[in-house]
Amino acid sequence: MKWILIGVLLAISYYGVQGFVSKPTIPRPNQPPIYHPIPPFNPGPPKFPTYRFRRSPQGSVDASVLKSEHGRPQLNLDYQQKFISNDKETFSGYGGVSSPDFKHFHPHGGLNYEWTPNKNTFFGAHGGVQQLPNGRFDPTVGVNFGMRFRRDLDQQLEE
Question: Distance (Å, rounded) from C-alpha 36 to C-alpha 24?
């Protein structure tokens, strides 16, 4: 009886595998003909368009162990991701966790934006939130402005 059952299972599996043998494909418009058989694990090009996004600019991870003002070690683990980075503007986000005693962890995160209209002036804005030890969240928001000055190297100081 078991030999008959094994024979039936082998016959079913043989005919099942024969269904996966690649068949000639119908050429689609704007596609060159395929002259090699397509294995069952690769059914051919996708039926809908796929898109790839560039992964740059990349993110960065920063981990540090610092000494607090009481002489105890403090852990900071941060991740920063640049969303836009070109000659005129930079937009990035950050998030992480800090631990004053390696037992309690406080998350934090935020966004930074900086716009540089020319090479000597920049405007920026930032916002973030940090969890305090009592469980409440402390939001921060700010704007900044800066100018860079450079003295010409050919000028001599007059005394």
Answer: 9
Q: What's the CA gap between 98 and 100, in Å, rounded?
A: 7
Concatenated DSSP letters of 77-119: EEEEEEEEESSSEEEEEEEEEEESSSS--EEEEEEEEEEEEET
In the chain, the largest separation of any two C-alpha atoms, in whole Å, equals 113
Q: Report how far residue 20's alpha carbon sits from residue 4's, in angstroms, rounded to the nearest whole number.
A: 25
Q: pTM of the full predicted structure?
A: 0.53
Contact partners, residue 101, CB within 8 Å, separation at least 6: 72
The amino acid that residue 119 corresponds to is K
pLDDT score of 124 more than 90: yes
